[in-house]
């Protein structure tokens, strides 16, 4: 009983939230660099404010982030001390192709990731690499309109060919797109899409989604051709929508919300669009931009595993008068009276993780990978920089226990678990540093001040014990 012997324990980050060094070694500008700290951040991420260049009146936390570009050896050594079996990270597309449409890659960027992967391998840590973690070169946004343009498939293909060949033997586990379903919720964040006033938003988003799904299948094809040992996964943002009442209208609303996220994974796992999505698009008068060969590509090159992020569940209602949603998440949710919430209003629901694992596994019968799960909280260090984060230990232990129950009692096949942010990083949704997730405290504040010194929190030793016992000791 319990987790498989080769269970992949570790942590997850993204390039944009950790690396910094936004203009070093020829790196280009990306959409995710342009998300400012402050009240306008969400509007930029949602594509409601057009921000294609830095504006001097804003602070852009990704410029420096936690400077992992210069600290990665130190950080990976700390991950190894915890016993990590896997480290999920992402590539900055603009380090490898600064504009995105070059014929030849930037060698300095390729070498940086090669060195980073070799550092992981030195400690027997398996890199799990997200090819695009909300990351689009701004040149491609401005010149081609980002993923609304079919040419993006070619540029992504070029990136994939380069990295699969360059890192053969160093990287075996890949994810094509981070939280691919978020393109419908936050189009500029997820896919570099700014919707112009004259455009139909749904048409743009579904067109872009189709191009990403084709690109994902193409990446899977190339990965398997370059190295049959490669394992390629997809990823969705999962949030277990619950109906507010037993009113059938509420239950149907929850089903519709769930379907909107799952249709992406239906395509990536089953190889074709589900009937409910095709019918929805038909009603909206949207024609997907299929070209010759797309259907065969999608059908023949499905993923090897399904990854997902899970932080909280949500509550939905069909009643248009129910508008009192809680904040803190790009997925709107009504309050759940049975759950407590985090400092940012995310409703803490460990059983929801077990429910989600069952739902996804029942739907696809593919190995699952929990690639993001964690608690953003305000950590207050003592004078020595130590944080006694029992609240984080409690959150994670309850979620791991729920995941273990899904394995033991429900028979769900889970490959691994990577805690979101094993080290404090810039928050994707808010841009804050004070919203901390890590086992390792980073001395940096919201304004970018601090020494960047790394300090172990109480949860560091706790997670080390969890990994050492393969999830048996969670106290």
From TrEMBL:
The keyword Hydrolase applies. Keywords: Glycosidase, Hydrolase. The active site is at 372 (nucleophile). The keyword Hydrolase applies. Gene3D superfamilies: Glycosidases. It holds the Pfam family Glyco_hydro_1. Signal peptide: none annotated. It comes from the Bacteria. Belongs to the glycosyl hydrolase 1 family. This is 6-phospho-beta-glucosidase. It comes from Paenibacillus zeirhizosphaerae.
């Amino acid at each position: 009983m319990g987790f498989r012997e080769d269970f992949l324990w570790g942590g997850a980050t993204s390039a944009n939230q950790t690396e910094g060094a936004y203009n070093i070694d020829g790196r280009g500008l990306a959409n995710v660099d342009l998300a400012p700290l402050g009240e306008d951040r969400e509007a930029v991420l949602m594509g409601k404010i057009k921000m294609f260049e830095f504006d001097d009146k804003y602070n852009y936390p990704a410029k420096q982030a936690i400077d992992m570009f210069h600290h990665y050896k130190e950080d990976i050594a700390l991950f190894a001390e915890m016993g990590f079996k896997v480290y999920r990270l992402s590539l900055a597309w603009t380090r490898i192709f600064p504009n995105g449409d070059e014929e030849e890659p930037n060698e300095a960027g390729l070498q940086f990731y090669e060195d980073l992967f070799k550092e992981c391998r030195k400690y027997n840590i398996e890199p799990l690499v997200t090819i695009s973690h909300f990351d689009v070169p701004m040149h491609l946004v401005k010149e081609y309109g980002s993923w609304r343009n079919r040419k993006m498939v070619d540029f992504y293909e070029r990136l994939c060919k380069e990295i699969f060949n360059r890192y053969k033997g160093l990287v075996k586990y890949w994810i094509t797109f981070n939280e691919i379903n978020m393109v419908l919720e936050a189009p500029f964040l997820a896919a570099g899409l700014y919707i112009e006033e004259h455009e139909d938003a749904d048409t743009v988003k579904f067109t872009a989604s189709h191009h990403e799904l084709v690109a994902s299948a193409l990446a899977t094809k190339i990965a398997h051709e370059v190295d049959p040992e490669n394992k390629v996964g997809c990823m969705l943002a999962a949030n277990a929508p619950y109906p507010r009442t037993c009113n059938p209208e509420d239950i149907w609303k929850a089903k519709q919300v769930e379907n909107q996220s799952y249709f992406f994974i239906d395509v990536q796992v089953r190889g074709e669009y589900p009937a409910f999505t095709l019918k929805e698009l038909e009603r909206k008068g949207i024609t997907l931009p299929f070209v010759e060969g797309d259907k065969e590509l999608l059908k023949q090159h499905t993923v090897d595993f399904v990854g997902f992020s899970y932080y909280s569940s949500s509550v939905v209602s069909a009643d248009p008068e129910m508008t009192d949603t809680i904040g803190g998440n790009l997925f709107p949710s009504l309050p759940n009276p049975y759950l407590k919430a985090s400092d940012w209003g995310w409703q803490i629901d460990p059983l929801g993780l077990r429910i989600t694992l069952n739902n996804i596994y029942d739907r696809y019968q593919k190995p699952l990978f929990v690639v993001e799960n964690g608690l953003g909280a305000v950590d207050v260090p003592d004078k020595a920089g130590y944080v006694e984060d029992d609240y984080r230990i409690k959150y994670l232990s309850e979620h791991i226990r729920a995941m273990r129950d899904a394995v033991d009692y429900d028979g769900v096949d889970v490959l691994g678990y990577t805690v979101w942010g094993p080290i404090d990083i810039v928050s994707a949704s808010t841009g804050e540093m004070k919203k901390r997730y890590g086992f390792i405290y980073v001395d940096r504040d919201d304004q970018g001040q601090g020494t960047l010194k790394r300090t172990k929190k109480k949860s560091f030793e706790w997670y080390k014990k969890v990994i050492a016992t393969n999830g048996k000791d969670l106290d």
